[in-house]
């Protein structure tokens, strides 16, 4: 897995949601629920929706653990993809680990990588980072998210 160091162009993107919050264990669930409601109007099938929600869970959970005071989540629709961006103001940089069967953590970025077209991380102005993933979600009808 390679973490790319540039975010895909968002020129034709439509912002679906943006949420700034304090880091907490409940944040991932709240964001998953909101995205599910907002993607309902986009005709995203259940399997693709589950993939987007799992990517959100992993990225928001990681950010909540790393953040010092804030997490920002953005979800945008881009053609037949959903771009998930999660910022945190914590130190450090995400790394991909090879988890053993006994490990209780360390699989998040590997899961995100398997569910996404591309995954990456970029530094942000406040010294934190933005981890992002672009998930392919063709609609059930036309092959493109509307």
Report the radius of gyration as a whole number of Å: 15 Å
Count of the domains:
1
What does the overall shape look like? Answer: globular
* Helical fraction: 25-40%
Structure characteristics:
146 residues, alpha+beta, Heat Shock Protein 90, five-stranded antiparallel beta sheet, 3 helices, 29% helix, globular, disordered C terminus
Give a verbal description of the structure.
With 146 residues, this protein is of the alpha+beta class. It has one domain (17-136): 2-Layer Sandwich (Heat Shock Protein 90). Helix content is 29%, strand content 26%. The protein contains 3 helices and 5 strands, in the order E-H-H-E-E-H-E-E. A 5-stranded antiparallel beta sheet has the order 1-2-3-5-4. Helix 1 packs antiparallel against helix 2 (46-66) and helix 2 (46-66) packs antiparallel against helix 3. The termini are far apart.
